[in-house]
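re the bet — no i am not wrong, look at it urself. input seq straight from the record:
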Amino acid sequence: MTDLQRFAVDCPSRLLFDQIADKWSMMVLTVLDRGPLRFNAIKRLLEGVSQKALTQCLRRLERNGLVSRRVLPLSPVAVEYEITELGRSLQEPFKALYAWTLRHFTAVESARASFDQRALAA
């Protein structure tokens, strides 16, 4: 008998996976790959993200040690975010996932079209 992977609802790794694999977290870590950015610069690079969603995402990433937050002594005060060494360790798997999406996008689109046709016929 083979061991089946089980995802218990209270498993800490499941919570962490949920927090790093959501779309905004992956995109934030990707845009921070080139260097530190202020909040509004990140927001401009992530079309469609709300201020609230981005704030929550950055807090989660900071809490998990993937992003650092630095207050800049400017007038008005500004905040800058930077990917940490721990956050950088996710870049390789994220880049692999992105490459996979590019490589298989046509097949996924074909599968979607087939599914939608079957759903319409049903």
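see?? The two ends are 38 Å apart (CA to CA). told u. also The beta strands are 37-38, 67-72, 78-83. so pay up
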